Amino acid sequence: MECDIWVLLGYALTGCELPIDSPAGPEELLAALEGAGWPAQRVRDQAYSLWEQEQPWPYPLPPDRIHQVNAAQWYAILGQVRTLLGLDVVHLPPSHRTTLTADERRLLADLPPHHGLVG
Q: How large is the average pLDDT for residues 39-55?
């Protein structure tokens, strides 16, 4: 099965399989996405929305498609696109959670067997 890495990248960025002609590079991919109704700001908004919901972005590829891409090429292009979108470094507000879960409290209370022994 022939794979168009650009269509898969478009899916990873938007969650939609869009008809994208094979662009020459990351900048052209973003232009093609804009032409398909996904301007850069919409992609950024989608990414931040998913991150705030603790959902993955870029969208993971469907299991039947992931084996169709060269991992090194995929991550190189995806990294370039994220940089162009200004999403290579993520700035999220700090968590407002202030209480520990029971498991976190148990781990904090757990002491190694040698703790407190004086030689």
A: 93
C-alpha 64/C-alpha 61 separation (Å) is 8
Q: Report the alpha-carbon angle 67-37-88, nearest 5.
A: 55
* pTM for the structure as a whole: 0.71
The secondary structure of 40-76 as a DSSP string is HHHHHHHHHHHHHTT--SSPPPPHHHHTTS-HHHHHH
Asked if residue 29 lies in contact with residue 35, where contact means CB atoms within 8 angstroms, the answer is no
Distance CA 44, CA 57 (A): 10
Question: What span, in angstroms and rounded, lies between the C-alpha atoms of 55 and 15?
Answer: 12
Helices 71-85 and 26-35, packing angle to 10 deg? 70
97-114, pLDDT tens digit by residue?
778 889 988 888 887 777
Distance in angstroms (rounded) separating the CA atoms of residues 78 and 73? 8
